[in-house]
Amino acid sequence: MQLTAKADSKLVAVQSPVAGVVEIHEMAMDNNVMKMRALPAGLELPAGKAVELKPGGYHVMLMDLKGQVKAGDTVPLTLVFEGKDGKRETVELQAPARPLNSAGMAAPQGDQGGHGAHKH
């Protein structure tokens, strides 16, 4: 998904009824090693610039799933944005679930695309 803010703001939280925990993550290369980390302060959204959430970059991580999510299912998400003035706004959307290996996320047998330690 792509997020474009009209004014400088940030994505500070994501919620979903299908998961016990939802985090905003970043994957980035560090000394030729792909590392993933949560962004507890949120994801900066500069005014007028599209910020893409996708495999291998910024993404939303659903953990402690309350049931199986299959390719083709629709997952409800509530995105929470915060402006420079501290005001928060929520946007609700329905995201289509895709297979783990879609969009270039080919994972070796038994691997979960670098997410093996997470319960999701």
Automatic annotation (TrEMBL):
Residues 111-120 have a biased composition (Gly residues). Coiled coil: none annotated. It holds the Pfam family PCuAC. Residues 86-120 are annotated as: Disordered. This is Copper chaperone PCu(A)C. The lineage of its organism: Bacteria, Pseudomonadati, Pseudomonadota, Betaproteobacteria, Burkholderiales.
